[in-house]
Design goal:
mainly alpha; single chain; Vanadium-containing Chloroperoxidase, domain 1
């Protein structure tokens, strides 16, 4: 798959913008990875807020499950589609990071897939944390293009993939709730006992 034929022009325009805004480099270089850690923190907060409520706890439990499933599907797509990284397609226009992705395919963006899966799964579990997660996902997605790691369509595909996997939580909620309600982790909380 030749990603440059899809939106290579947008990729080059974004690199030009990135090179014209050096004061943003540090932020995006850090946030592109560190932003993903915010989802672990948000999930921990959501778990604490949901304690004693089997249904809400099950929704939070879906967050890491959705992330792992989305990541697995994303990697399967990568080795199936085998789209070279844009930095390899445009060697004369170096990105803001070291282009060492000769064996790591570009489509879809794993970062965006994980961020979208985590954000949407969080939205199903806790509205406010989920909305914050969506904002973080948008910044992460932008950073992947800004840094030159992905084409725009790689990021959009990751967003769609992560969202679709996370929405499977609507189907998984009932069995997860049954599992959580029988777990000894929650047995100490009298509020849960009243819900059984």
């Amino acid at each position: 798959m030749d990603g440059a034929a899809i939106d290579g022009g947008w990729y080059l325009d974004m690199l030009a913008f990135a090179k014209a805004t050096p004061w943003l480099h540090g932020f995006f270089e850090v946030f592109t990875n560190a932003g993903l850690l915010l989802y672990a923190l948000a999930a921990a907060v959501a778990w604490w807020l949901a304690r004693g409520d089997a249904r809400r706890s099950a929704a939070v439990l879906w967050v890491p499950i959705a992330v792992l499933l989305a990541y697995a599907v994303s990697n399967l797509l990568k080795i199936t589609v085998r789209e070279p990284r844009p930095c390899l397609r445009y060697p004369a226009v170096p990105p803001l990071f070291t282009c060492d992705f000769a064996t790591d395919w570009s489509f879809p963006s794993n970062h965006m897939t994980i961020a979208a899966a985590a954000a949407v799964a969080l939205l199903l579990a806790h509205r406010q944390l989920g909305l914050g997660g969506l904002a973080v996902a948008a910044v992460i997605g932008f950073s992947r293009i800004y840094l030159g790691a992905h084409y725009v369509h790689d990021v959009l595909a990751g967003a769609v993939l992560g969202t679709l996997v996370a929405l499977c939580g609507l189907v998984a909620r009932a069995p997860l709730t049954a599992i959580v309600s029988r777990s000894q982790v929650f047995a100490f909380d009298p509020r849960l006992q009243r819900r059984r």
